[in-house]
Design brief:
Layout (H helix, E strand, L loop, with lengths): L10 H25 L3 H40 L5 H4 L3
């Protein structure tokens, strides 16, 4: 099955989509664990759910770091905005 990847407009969108997918996978494993008859299977599925939560947490930290870095860079770059009046020598 070929996966259709949507067009993203920013890294923030990519990371948020990835976080959402990890949380969906966590929910899938958690619900499957509730249905599991065998304790070993239930334990395995809950471990998988924990791993997906770990992935989501890591991606969330990356997203927050990216947003923070972007805010800092936007602030720095805004201080270099060209003033058209200065360029004309006015």
């Amino acid at each position: 099955m070929k996966r259709v990847i949507p067009e993203y407009s920013s890294l923030e969108n990519i990371l948020q989509d990835a976080i959402d997918k990890e949380l969906d996978a966590k929910q899938f494993y958690t619900e499957a664990a509730e249905l599991a008859q065998a304790a070993a299977v239930r334990e395995f599925l809950l471990e998988m759910a924990e791993m997906e939560q770990g992935h989501a947490d890591m991606l969330r930290r990356k997203l927050e770091s990216f947003k923070s870095d972007k805010t800092v860079m936007d602030g720095i770059l805004s201080s270099f905005d060209d003033d058209p009046e200065v360029e004309k020598g006015e």
